[in-house]
Amino acid sequence: AQSVTQLGSHVSVSEGALVLLRCNYSSSVPPYLFWYVQYPNQGLQLLLKYTTGATLVKGINGFEAEFKKSETSFHLTKPSAHMSDAAEYFCAVTRGDSSYKLIFGSGTRLLVRP
Amino acid sequence: DAGVTQSPTHLIKTRGQHVTLRCSPISGHKSVSWYQQVLGQGPQFIFQYYEKEERGRGNFPDRFSARQFPNYSSELNVNALLLGDSALYLCASSLIGGETNTEAFFGQGTRLTVV
């Protein structure tokens, strides 16, 4: 079975500060990992994904994440927060098989203070 | 190009009623998945359809059903609505149903409120 744990339901940072959103996963098979962002009253937008290959993945809007198998983690970072980054962020995992079932964490709401 | 479109955007139903939610995938996408997102939680997988066949089902009761049409659009049906069915229902389309490294594109969702 697969699962995702996002530490911290709310994270607050100042504009210009480092953003770090934590995600740990559990998977009995090599996972594919994703970060999605959700703005109010909208659907989900893919920020970045890890499937195979390079463990440091760069996404849109200056975000990146590093897959660490030994720590079963896939934390999301951004060097400098912008006000427009305020949103809900979801980490998700899926198996590398024929189904496309995404298993999501409970989400982290990012607040950016001016 | 149009993204994933869902209708309606908002819906209010009474307990015990039936509801049908609709989704049109991105042109050329043959796979549609449905997710339920209860307030304050992450989305939960309900169904995946690929080439009009059910490919996966989540842990939801039989009151939930879906189908995919020849034009790859999809409907999600929920019978005998309960208060707990109140949620944002998200539809996602992807190019190929059998490749998990294919990005899933999400629609804006349908906000269902059961009273």
Give the SSE map.
The complex is a heterodimer of chains A (about 110) and B (about 120).
Chain A: E1 3-7, E2 10-14, E3 19-26, E4 31-38, E5 44-50, E6 56-58, E7 64-68, E8 73-78, E9 87-95, E10 103-104, E11 108-113
Parallel strand pairs in A: 2-11
Antiparallel strand pairs in A: 1-3, 3-8, 4-5, 4-9, 6-7, 7-8, 9-10, 9-11
Chain B: E1 5-7, E2 10-13, E3 19-24, E4 31-37, E5 44-50, E6 53-57, E7 64-68, E8 74-78, E9 87-94, E10 105-106, E11 110-114
Parallel strand pairs in B: 2-11
Antiparallel strand pairs in B: 1-3, 3-8, 4-5, 4-9, 5-6, 7-8, 9-10, 9-11
How would you describe this structure to a colleague?
The complex is a heterodimer of chains A (114) and B (115). Chain A has strands at residues 3-7, 10-14, 19-26, 31-38, 44-50, 56-58, 64-68, 73-78, 87-95, 103-104, 108-113. The N and C termini of chain A lie far apart (41 Å). In chain A, the strands form two sheets. In chain A, strands 2, 4, 5, 9, 10 and 11 form a six-stranded mixed sheet that branches. A five-stranded antiparallel sheet of chain A has the order 1-3-8-7-6, with no helix packed on it. Chain A is mainly beta and 114 residues long. Chain A is 0% helix and 56% strand. With 115 residues, chain B is mainly beta. Chain B contains no helices and eleven strands. Chain B has strands spanning 5-7, 10-13, 19-24, 31-37, 44-50, 53-57, 64-68, 74-78, 87-94, 105-106, 110-114. In chain B, strands 2, 4, 5, 6, 9, 10 and 11 form a seven-stranded mixed sheet that branches. Chain B has a four-stranded antiparallel sheet with strand order 1-3-8-7, with no helix packed on it. Classes of the chains: A mainly beta (114), B mainly beta (115). Chains A and B meet through β5, β9 and β10 of A and β4, β5, β9 and β10 of B.
